[in-house]
UniProtKB/TrEMBL annotation:
Protein's organism: Niastella soli
Name recorded for this polypeptide: Efflux transporter outer membrane subunit
Major place of residence: membrane
Annotated TM spans: none
Family assignment from sequence similarity: Belongs to the outer membrane factor (OMF) (TC 1.B.17) family.
Top-rank taxon: Bacteria
Signal peptide bounds: 1-23
Length: 477
């Protein structure tokens, strides 16, 4: 009889499985495209600057100290570390779902039923032993253990744990991406600060030049060679340049505070050597080949792991269409008096049950979850492909920028040299009444702007070196 019932249950399970498989909604799948160009500049050299340790890449000791502090104290990075801990706990939670759940149970209570009921009438005529009736009201004492377990036939629970593992690994790559971004942001802000220091020096020097020119104009006015208008024009130019000092000082304060924020500390002076901006540029950048980005860039690896998790989510959602098998069991002792509680076999109780559950009607929620899981997987494919394309574009842009900035810096250096000489020339011509005072003013203004632009170009060169290092995936290793 038992064997016959077992066959019936198996047959019923097969029918449910066939039904659910036939009624599963159709979805559209998409496979990711991992192909990348063969090279950046027709080079097959696999030497890659992105694999260099950041302490070897950034040789300025002041900058290295700032980066080291940021990696220890930055709040965003520490928040990311807690997110990693959360995702790691998710693995434990998912693993626990496919292991048997075992618990203990103990309880005590009392029950009074009506005498003129089937249970009350039965209790009234029952004797525990001769001359000893059933207690009324009836106490109840229980102690035992129980277990439940879902047989993971379709790997629903195991795939959910694998998806949690993929997301945990993805969170680690997310931390690595935060590290590369943090290093780049600290370095870029540091070079901005050095550029502002150099611009402030240029302003101070220019104020001296303009003040000397103002003295010359005053002497020329006393000799009746120029009018009061020329004196006022030169005075206004000196005042304008002096006001520029305070604008730069404010930018210096804000840049220092931005660096301090990245370092997780309150505002304080930033130790630096402003001559570092004019130091030799880092060694020649080696971009390697584009396919190395797939393993070097944390954001690409993060997107790949998110895609893996999304694919597993589809399998989990698909398994919910199939019947699930659950097993439950329990064993313990139950009696109306502690005296009889552990008498065996009289007070012993046990149970063993199995159940087969399959969705047959109103499966809209399961269908929606399955379709949504598939849609999220397609989203993950597009995000993965977009991340690869963006990474390649970032490297290509920075490679071109480094080359163009080098040419621009050489030309601006020549421009500054020419305009610096023209200041002395214009002053001499003005003293000999062979040049108008406006020519002197414009020459000084042009020289100041060209020096500012030269410093700006140098800063952009240093930042390009930082950005290409980040684009190649450097810093996190």
């Amino acid at each position: 009889m038992l064997k016959s019932n077992l066959y019936k249950l198996v047959g019923l399970g097969c029918i449910c499985l066939a039904y659910t498989a036939c009624k599963m909604p159709a979805v559209t799948t998409k496979t990711e495209n991992k192909s990348v160009p063969a090279s950046f500049n027709n080079s097959t050299d696999t030497v890659n600057t992105g694999t260099v340790k950041w302490k070897s890449y950034f040789t300025d000791p002041n900058l290295a100290a700032l980066i080291d502090t940021a990696l220890k104290n930055n709040q965003e990075l520490n928040i990311t570390l807690q997110e990693i801990a959360i995702t790691k706990n998710e693995i434990t939670a998912r693993k626990g779902e496919y292991l048997p759940f075992v618990g203990v149970r103990a309880g005590a209570g009392v029950e009074k039923v009506g005498r003129y009921t089937s249970q009350g009438a039965g209790d009234a005529t029952t004797e525990i032993k001769p001359g000893k009736e059933m207690p009324d009201p009836l106490p109840d004492f229980l102690i035992g253990a129980y277990a439940t377990w879902e047989a993971d036939i379709w790997h629903k629970l195991h795939n959910a744990k694998k998806a949690a593992v993929a997301r945990y690994l993805s969170s680690i790559e997310g931390r690595n991406f935060v590290i590369t971004s943090l290093i780049a942001e600290v370095a870029n802000s540091y070079y901005e600060l050095l550029a502002l220091d150099n611009q402030l020096k240029i302003v101070d020097s220019n104020i001296t030049i303009q003040s000397n020119a103002l003295d010359v104009v005053k002497q020329q006015k006393e000799a009746a060679r120029v009018t009061e208008l020329a004196v006022r024009k030169f005075e206004a130019e000196v005042f304008n340049t002096k006001s520029l000092q305070y604008s730069i000082q404010q930018q210096i304060t804000e840049t220092e505070n931005r660096i301090n924020f990245l370092l997780g500390r309150f505002p304080q002076p930033i130790t630096r050597d402003d001559n570092s901006l004019n130091a030799a540029l880092p060694v020649t950048i080696q971009t390697g080949i584009p396919s190395q980005l797939l393993s070097n860039r944390p954001d690409i690896k993060q997107a790949e792991l998110e895609l893996s998790a999304a694919k597993l989510d589809i399998q989990v959602a698909k398994a919910k269409f199939y019947p699930s098998v659950g097993i439950s069991a329990g064993i313990g002792w139950n009696a109306f008096s502690p005296t009889y509680l552990f008498r065996t076999p009289e007070s012993l109780l046990y149970s063993l049950a199995g159940e087969l559950v399959a969705p047959l009607v109103n499966r809209n929620a399961i269908k929606a979850e399955y379709i949504n899981a598939n849609a999220r997987q397609i989203q993950a494919v597009y995000n993965y492909e977009r991340t690869i394309v963006n990474a390649f574009a970032e490297v290509a842009n920075q490679v071109a920028k480094i080359g163009n900035l080098a040419k621009s810096y050489d030309l601006k250096t020549q421009q500054v040299a020419a305009l610096t000489q023209s200041i002395d020339i214009s002053n001499d011509l003005f003293r000999n009444a062979r040049a108008d005072y406006m020519e002197v003013l414009m020459t000084q203004r042009d020289a100041l702007e060209s020096k500012f632009e030269l410093v700006e170009t140098r800063m952009q060169q240093m930042k390009a070196m930082v950005n290409i290092y980040q684009a190649l995936g450097g810093g996190w290793n």
